Amino acid sequence: MYYNSTRNSNLNKTFDEIIIEGLSSDGGLFMPKTWPKVNTEIILNNNDISYDQLASEILQHYVGNTIAKKELDLITKKSYNNFSHKKVAPIKKLDENKFILELFYGPTFAFKDYPLQLVGNLFQYYLTKKNKNITVIGATSGDTGSAAIEACRDKENIKIFILHPNMKTSDIQRKQMTTVISENVFNIAIDGTFDDCQKIVKDLFVSNTLKNKTTLSAINSINWARIISQTVYFFWAYIQAKKYDKKINFIVPTGNFGNVYAAHVAEIMGLPINKLYVTTNENDIMHRTLKSGDMTLKKVKSTISPSMDIQISSNFERQLFESLDSDSDKLNTLMSEFYNDKGKQLNSELLEKLQKIYSSKSVNDLDTIKTIQYFNKNYNYISDPHTATSLEVLTNIENNDLNVSLACAHPAKFPESIEKAIDVNIEKPKNLKEILDKKEKYTLMENDFTSVENYILEKI
Fold first, then answer.
1. Is this model's pTM higher than 0.85 or not?
2. What is the CATH number for 329?
3. Is 229 within a domain?
4. Kind and range of the H or E element at 389?
5. How many domains does the chain have?
6. CA distance 451 to 453
């Protein structure tokens, strides 16, 4: 298996190279040059398959000969042995064809644990094998940071720097990052938005000054290993529903587009997906893009679903590249116009390709709260506000397919929103309770690339 870049179709990289690099040196995102197919009949007919075994079966198609299957089995088993539910990612049935896929049983109670526990162990495998050290850099709008830190903390051959927008995550999300006191963990609060953090990270990856001193790697969803690790739970949901005569739809709360693109990758690999529903909050660039081709950048709004407070969805570049028939010249032109003009109107041909895969909806704060109230009253189910954006769509779907809404975080991570919606002081899991009174450690910095670069140079 070889990989190119969205900015260079002629690139040839192996998996062990692209997982460590994370972001291509040309500024593009890595993509497989060919799409592997999974024998879904074998997987679906294996009643005894476990989540970690499924992960190994899927990932073997992407790692090539860079890791033996027996070793991959051990890595996936290790990655999910600390999840608190025996099914790792269980589905909850609402009615005959509507389900919720719960993705909050990892160590930080959010869906990011599912890929990042695995990616952290893959990092460790390749770094030990190559006797290398790396500097991991990532930006987070909420949950990626804590999951990445949990995956990389205390690892001798990794130093990890996580940028988050100051005062624009929930208190619990921030404290899950900043109360981890480990010599290899560095938290940076940027006086700006998530998009500002993400831009700094991308600029750091093309900094010759940094690259001359250390090996850089990305751990958020711009790293291809994240995407393929997330494909697993889409297959897992279909296996649990056990209705193989039906197609399946997923409703995915979307910020950086990584999660829903992983679902699309699962479809390419053979999962019988009929439609993918993208839900956003009032930061609705993905909804506007998929509905009418309008990629105009607007000011980021603060909402009760802060992990989705994003205007530049980095992983959408992967979908654009794919829809442009993997033509990096066309992609480069499109992205250059988008960044230079603060927006882009997609042509009708490209928009039609996207709409064959995705539908979308923007859900404001008021409707998010109403949905939390509705599911609590009618199903005795409490959802976090991000999940509620997808549940709002689920309630209105009428078809004969299987419909699965993704629950992306434990509701206890957003107690203010839950209390506001249903006047319930939700019980926090033990690990969340413990961080509330812990001392925080982070560095507040201006939205300035040079300052962040110099800080990292001092610490590595």
1. yes
2. 3.40.50.1100
3. yes
4. helix 385-394
5. 1
6. 5
Which residues 6+ apart lie within 8 Å of 336 measured at CB?
none
Say if 341 falls within a structural domain: yes
Is the pLDDT assigned to residue 8 strictly greater than 90? yes
Which tens digits make up the pLDDT trace of 118-144? 999 999 999 999 888 999 999 987 778
Residues known to be catalytic:
112
CA-based R_g, the chain, Å? 20
**Structure-token pair, residue 442:** 């982070």
H and E: helices and strands count for the chain = 20, 14
Please list, in sequence order, all residues whose beta carbon lies within 8 angstroms of the beta carbon of residue 327, skipping any fewer than 6 positions away: 9, 321
Give the pLDDT confidence of 52-73 residue by residue, as tens digits.
Answer: 999 999 999 999 999 999 999 9
Residue span of the structural domain in which 343 resides? 91-110+224-422
Q: For residue 302, is it within any domain?
A: yes
> Which residues in 149-245 belong to E strands, given as ranges?
158-165, 185-190, 216-218
Q: What is the token pair recorded at 133? A: 């050290």
Residue 97 lies in a domain: yes
Which tens digit of pLDDT belongs to each residue from 345-381? Answer: 999 999 999 999 999 999 999 999 999 999 999 999 9
> How many C-beta atoms surround the C-beta of residue 76 within 10 A?
27
Q: Is there a contact between 424 and 373 (Cβ–Cβ < 8 Å)? A: no
Asked whether the beta carbons of 220 and 148 are under 8 A apart, the reply is yes
Nearest partner of 161 among 108, 125, 214, judged by Cα:
214
The encoded tokens of residue 371 equal 């949905």
